[in-house]
Amino acid sequence: MMHNIIHDDIQKILSSPLPFEKLYGKTVIISGANGYVPAYFVYTFLALNDLRGAGIKVFALCRDEKRARERFADFTGRQDFQLVIQDICRPVDLDEEIHVYIHAASPAGILKRHEDPVNTFLANVKGAENMLNLAMHHPCQYFLFLSSVDVYGKRENSERLKEDMSGYLDPLNIRNVYSCGKRAAETLCKAYQMKYHVPVFLVRPFQIIGPGPDLNDGRLHIDFISQMLKGNQIVLKSDGTAIRTFMYIADAIIAMLTVMLKGSPGEAYNIVDENGEASVKELAEIMASLIADRTVAVTFDYEKRNTIEVTGALSKVTGNSEKLAALGWVPFYSLTEGALRMMEYYGLNVIKRRRE
């Protein structure tokens, strides 16, 4: 059965004042559906069917069949759900009328990106091409591309990033393979919109926290959870001063659906909550303070500062949310509330401050 945290998240998403009726009776394909963020789209669309009779059919395109059958075990045998097992780098051929496309296939954790940089780049760019080509031959109404804050690159100033800003990315630095892939895919999406009139919507999520990633994923917050599950300390690999913007997954899904259903085609939108800004050390301290049954210390290991997660990381990456807010989006969960929900999902004994 679906975990109660995820179930509650989906109910919160469905309670948002979005024009979900635009999706009723539509067929949706989601690439990279195995990922913890795109999986929430699957849950949301099928919940619309269960609770509102929306009549949405969902194709979940995944590369790893075993993992997909585990993640979507609750939906086995449903007529409105079908797994498509293939590599997104191969052409997608479905004999169905598809109306909504969500391209989210890409290795996201930094460790996975470096293990296979070729697939990381191609999943974004070649994957986008394959999805866009499919959209060209179908009655496409929405094409949502999940890009990344990483497309902004390195900038000299530290102001909150707006959608029209662009910094430097060294294409020969393998650390940038994910960032460059996302940039190239954005350009390809825009080209298809201009030439073939594909209604593309580009979203640039900042740090999304929530249930789902593997504990060895490599993301900052997941690393903290993994450490707390094993012991009574969080060991930082940096000095902890780097600042990021964090958003809970339910708020992020609502934000991306807001862009798709209410935004302007061909434009990019930050998926960011300005109130979620925190340094690495502050996030660690917040999460440590939420443990109910023991004391968790935040410490430093100076010998690990040359790891791939730390080397080359920018000191500040924060975003401007004005464009998203202009569509009527407002966040529901604070950083603390989001951390509580995530930590509870992974089985940590947390204090009971979560908003019901």
Helix and strand topology:
Layout: H1 4-14, E1 27-31, H2 36-52, E2 57-62, H3 65-71, E3 81-85, E4 100-103, H4 110-115, H5 117-136, E5 142-146, H6 177-196, E6 200-205, E7 207-209, H7 220-230, E8 233-236, E9 243-248, H8 249-262, E10 268-271, E11 277-279, H9 280-289, E12 297-300, E13 316-317, H10 322-325, H11 335-345
Parallel strand pairs: 1-2, 1-4, 2-3, 4-5, 5-6, 6-10, 7-9, 8-12, 9-13
Antiparallel strand pairs: 9-11
What is the typical, i.e. mean, pLDDT? 93
Largest sheet: 7 strands, parallel
* Amount of beta strand: 15-25%
- The proportion of residues forming helix, as a percent range, comes to 25-40%
Count of distinct strands: 13
Structural class: alpha/beta
Folded structure, characterized:
By secondary structure, the protein is of the alpha/beta class. Helix content is 37%, strand content 16%. The chain has 11 helices and 13 strands. It has helices at 4-14, 36-52, 65-71, 110-115, 117-136, 177-196, 220-230, 249-262, 280-289, 322-325, 335-345, and strands at 27-31, 57-62, 81-85, 100-103, 142-146, 200-205, 207-209, 233-236, 243-248, 268-271, 277-279, 297-300, 316-317. The strands form 3 sheets. A 7-stranded parallel β-sheet has the order 3-2-1-4-5-6-10, sandwiched between helices. Strands 7, 9, 11 and 13 form a 4-stranded mixed β-sheet that branches. Strand 5 (142-146), helix 6 (177-196) and strand 6 form a beta-alpha-beta unit. Helix 5 (117-136) runs parallel beside helix 6 (177-196). The model has no long low-confidence stretch (mean pLDDT 93).
